[in-house]
Design goal:
Order of helices and strands: HHHHH
Number of helices: 5
Radius of gyration: 16 Å
Structural class: mainly alpha
Largest sheet: none
Strand content: under 5%
Distance between the termini: 34 Å
Length: about 70
């Protein structure tokens, strides 16, 4: 029930965070330092180019079969 409520307003912007719900359940779950892709990586376009394009970070750390 808590998870369903927390994601009730989830949309394609990847923001599953509702401050009212978080406050209501703050004694049950640890506090998290949330961030956005824009804040940390400069947006989805930059994150995609650096981390997920062919030869990007994901390809460098991923080893098939592990």
């Amino acid at each position: 029930m808590v998870i369903r409520e927390f994601y009730a307003d989830f949309n394609a912007t990847f923001k599953p965070r509702d401050l009212a719900v978080a406050e209501r359940y703050r004694n049950q779950f640890p506090s998290l330092n949330l961030f956005t892709i824009a804040e940390v990586f400069g947006g989805w376009v930059k994150a995609q180019a650096a981390h997920f394009k062919d030869g990007g970070t994901f390809d460098q750390i991923y080893q098939q079969g592990r």
